[in-house]
């Protein structure tokens, strides 16, 4: 287990799985597609009993009920209860349990895992000062390199610890913004930074909002400290500097005092093809730190984005939720036989893909193939590997048909054992709804 890191969804398809590809793989010219499955009716909402072989495998599979079926220690049972609270959308209660475990548990593995999850919860709630005051205890002393990690959450917490609370104001009616798609298909909306308008990506894969360095200089967004930190992407690390945006305007929504990162403008590009002149510049990104605090609808057909103040549902519970923050936004999908799958929600990724874990869990059949000219941050290359021809999955009880999914090995890790990535193509045939307050992700 590794310490939490600030992440960014600026990279896609750069480290493809190449094993087992034949000399003449099938060329796959079409991108993956996700459509409503008309041959399968609505089905399972809650997953069936998990099949994890160990406690920590169950935790990485987001199966906190493992202890109800197997003998576990009291410390492990407490950690599972904290994970259950996180899934149920109760981060404050989870923090109390995790803080106690990371300080007092006699189990060194529980201490390390509890600290990792606690930092994720504190980051999610902008509790930077509390996060900066966490001290390594017990077995975490062996992870002091992570404490000095420039992409580590603790390093960013030190920069943000004295920043005042973020404030958001909403108009009475929902805000409707025009939707523009980037060259890689990422949704973009007009955003006013300190009163000056730009087009920013809506990127759930970025844990924090980002401003390109030239745009930051022009719009008066200044670094908080002289030191340069880092963010982790799927293709490696990118230098970044912590900052605060005084005012973000999104229609009638105003976000004040919002923490952000400044990234060199030369790194804020998406390239298509071998010719570097095809690079498309990115002015900035609205990350999950802002997206998670709104009720967001992305309508790809009518090219508009709706933003509204989130309203907490009257009834809450784990089975009613399928979107969680566990250091990164995770969406639960379910196979027709009831096996839970967990996909990272990354609207900044060019396309949806699976990992090798999904193949065994869903018994998906694959073929060897090759896809050319896959664009992304840091360049383009031809990728070879396995493709899933088609697979049927349920999203909040809604049957979906996924076709031509590339089997990809992510270069970044999270606490959750990922079965795939939901990219910017997930809602191209309709509208997606992201309601992190109520833990809901849907295709409407």
Averaged pLDDT, please? 84
Q: How much helix is in the residues?
A: 10-25%
Estimate the strand proportion. 25-35%
Q: The CATH topology of the largest domain is what?
A: Cathepsin D, subunit A, domain 1
- Give the low-pLDDT segments: 10-23, 137-147, 373-379
Major sheet size, sense and barrel closure: 10 strands, mixed
- Rg for CA atoms: 21 Å
CATH class of the largest domain: Mainly Beta
Q: In one word, what is the shape?
A: globular
Structural class of the helices, strands and pairings? alpha+beta
CATH architecture annotation of the largest domain = Beta Barrel
Distance between the termini: 36 Å
- The CATH superfamily of the largest domain is Acid Proteases
Number of helices: 11
In the residues, how many domains can be counted? Answer: 3
How many DSSP E strands? 26
Write a concise keyword list for the protein shown above.
444 residues, 26 strands, ten-stranded mixed sheet, globular, six-stranded mixed β-barrel, Cathepsin D, subunit A, domain 1, 11 helices, alpha+beta
What is the secondary structure topology, with strand pairs?
Elements: E1 26-27, E2 33-36, H1 55-60, H2 66-69, H3 74-87, H4 91-104, H5 108-124, H6 128-132, H7 144-147, H8 153-160, E3 167-169, E4 175-178, E5 180-181, E6 187-193, E7 196-202, E8 209-212, H9 213-219, E9 229-233, E10 236-250, E11 253-263, E12 269-270, E13 280-281, E14 284-286, H10 288-291, E15 295-299, E16 304-308, E17 323-325, E18 329-334, E19 340-345, E20 353-354, H11 356-362, E21 366-374, E22 381-395, E23 398-407, E24 420-422, E25 431-435, E26 440-443
Parallel strand pairs: 1-21, 7-14, 8-11, 19-24, 20-23
Antiparallel strand pairs: 2-23, 3-11, 4-16, 5-6, 6-7, 6-10, 8-14, 9-10, 10-11, 12-13, 15-16, 15-25, 17-18, 18-19, 20-24, 21-22, 22-23, 25-26
Helix pairs in contact: 3-4, 3-5, 4-5
